[in-house]
Specification:
This protein has about 550 residues and is an alpha/beta fold. It contains 22 helices and 16 strands. Helix content is about 45%, strand content about 10%.
Length: about 550
């Protein structure tokens, strides 16, 4: 069997080109190319799941650039049975909630049943499975990904899976022999089909006979082991058509490849070590089809810990986009998929700084190494439409601007700091300041050093004469020298010493004057960013 880990030996500026080359070697140039991702609705569809969407999206875009007709499909494995109660769920607005905040009985009384047969605990969609699919659809829309979402339930009920299911059951002995090479629990009674019990609605595993010509199976509803517990079968004996059940995952995945004509599929390393080898074997030996071109990606962590719905270590796409522009998110996924990475909410400023440099490299506005420059020149147009007139305010400075809600003051502060050109158009200003609300949301979410509000009126303060005189001298220095942030920061120290004021107390006085707080961001750069007249008047205890 081939290894899914390596697409090509030679170096590429953008990994999606390697995948596109591999796909072109497989397909006829006139055929529609199908790229697939997929997921089972077993937990909150979180930002980590976007690997499935964005990896495929970039490959699709590269192929479209080369003139191919491409369709990106995403399957929701919503005929899978609910095996255990999730601890966390998400509503359609992206809010993550516990079971106590929804109709948990909708889930608790339906263990073992397909997700699309379980009522939506939020009461807003036709089923829990549909609720999950809607979140995926919304996430794709937010990231501007053109996605054809396909429900496994619909594929079974429409008959789309019927031919491949019939073929697998007609060759059940061969299917059993193949799977036994990968799983120990495959015995002579194993049948690769799970009927849905007509009596209790659970997905059962005991097939007693197969009628290929009629396209039916006889079954008995028996206990199934799921999530460390036993879900009791009702004992009902009945007949199910091939549309009234499902294939086990190891066969369902290759069935998707055949039914949907899949040419390329990225997937996590867990599948590379498990389902991929058996899937490739089943595709070639049992279904007589060529498996899609595979690409394995490494999972990434969230603030240093694995994504976990049960532990609450998740973030939704909608939440991330409250903090970052979509192009920054897309940039994150342009990085090498073979390397494990951490997506840190705490350090989003570093990610945005990376993106801003990546953008400047593309436009030739900064110098970089040959490799990083070539990567930026190749990948940037797939991240956003190039715009030489764009203005990017540094993320942490945008967080400083977020300390006030006054748009005019924000623009004044941005101009004062040199981050907003004096000749910027109204449209450019509006777009540039759009980052401010996101940086402000980041400061509030992480409660970091930028989570303060500018005191737009003079706070009720009283200082001794030495401090008052030192503040007045600092105002005089700012008017005369017009220093940059670092120079001003050093001058604050010197002014305190010249007036024999405790340095710590002098900084506290500054924070009280401008933030009505005891502490805050680095005071020199902060004051240098503000309107000079506003700063000097406030230091003189006026207004």
């Amino acid at each position: 069997m081939s290894s899914p880990h390596t697409l090509a030996d030679r170096q590429y500026d953008f990994w999606a080109d390697a995948a596109a080359d591999a796909v072109e070697e497989r397909v006829d140039s006139d055929e529609e190319i199908v790229i697939k991702g997929g997921i089972s609705p077993s937990g909150v569809p979180h930002f980590g799941n976007m690997n499935e969407l964005l990896r495929g999206h970039f490959v699709a875009e590269v192929l479209r650039e080369r003139g191919h007709d491409v369709r990106q499909v995403f399957t929701t494995d919503d005929r899978d049975p609910l095996r255990k109660l999730p601890r966390k769920l998400a509503d359609l607005d992206g809010n993550i909630v516990g079971l106590g905040e929804v109709d948990a009985s909708a889930l608790g009384t339906n263990l073992g049943k397909p997700y699309t047969d379980i009522p939506d605990p939020f009461g807003c969609c036709d089923s829990y499975g549909n609720h999950f699919s809607e979140i995926i659809r919304q996430s794709a829309d937010l990231l501007d990904i053109d996605l054809d979402i396909r429900s496994n339930t619909e594929l079974y009920e429409s008959g789309a899976f019927e031919d491949v299911t019939r073929h697998i059951l007609a060759h059940a002995d061969e299917a059993r022999a193949i799977l036994s090479e990968y799983q120990d629990k495959v015995d002579e009674s194993y049948v690769p089909f799970n009927p849905i019990c007509a009596e209790c609605g659970t997905v059962t595993e005991t097939v007693t006979s197969i009628d290929i010509e009629a396209g039916t199976v006889e079954y008995r509803c028996t206990d199934i082991e799921a999530g460390g517990q036993t879900i009791e079968g009702c004992g009902h004996e009945g007949t199910a058509t091939l549309r009234e059940g499902k294939l086990p995952w190891r066969f369902e995945w290759p069935a998707q490849w055949q039914t949907l004509g899949v040419d390329f599929e990225p997937f996590g390393k867990d599948h590379a070590e498990g389902s991929w080898p058996s899937g490739e074997h089943i595709a070639r030996e049992l279904l007589d089809i060529e498996p899609p071109v595979p690409m394995v990606y490494e999972w990434f962590t969230l603030d240093g810990e694995p994504f976990s719905s049960s532990a609450g270590n998740v973030v939704m796409v909608s939440e991330v986009l409250d903090l970052l522009e979509p192009e920054v998110v897309r940039y994150f996924f342009t990085k090498d998929p073979k390397r494990a990475r951490d997506f840190s909410i705490e350090r989003l400023d570093q990610l945005v700084d990376e993106f801003d440099r990546f953008e400047r490299l593309y436009f030739g506005e900064t110098d970089g190494g040959e490799t990083e420059t070539a990567r930026a020149e190749r990948a940037y147009p797939f991240v956003t439409d190039p715009d030489e007139e764009r203005i990017r305010i540094p993320y942490t400075f945008a967080a400083v601007l977020g300390m006030t809600d006054d748009d005019e003051l924000r623009a004044t502060m941005a101009r004062r700091s040199g981050h907003l050109p004096g000749d910027a158009s109204d449209e450019q200003i509006e777009r540039a300041l759009g980052r401010v609300e996101k940086a402000r949301a980041w400061a509030v979410r992480t409660d970091n050093e930028y989570n303060y509000r500018l005191a737009e009126e003079l706070p009720d303060v009283a200082f001794d004469d030495a401090t008052t005189n030192a503040l007045a001298d600092l105002a005089e220095y700012i008017e005369t020298e017009q220093p940059d942030g670092e120079t001003l920061h050093e001058e604050i120290f010197e002014t305190a010493r010249d007036h024999e004021v405790d340095v710590g107390e002098f900084f506290t006085a500054g924070y009280r004057l401008f933030l009505d707080e005891e502490q805050g961001p680095r005071l020199g750069p902060f004051l240098a960013a503000l309107d000079r007249t506003f700063v000097t008047e406030r230091l003189r205890l006026r207004g």
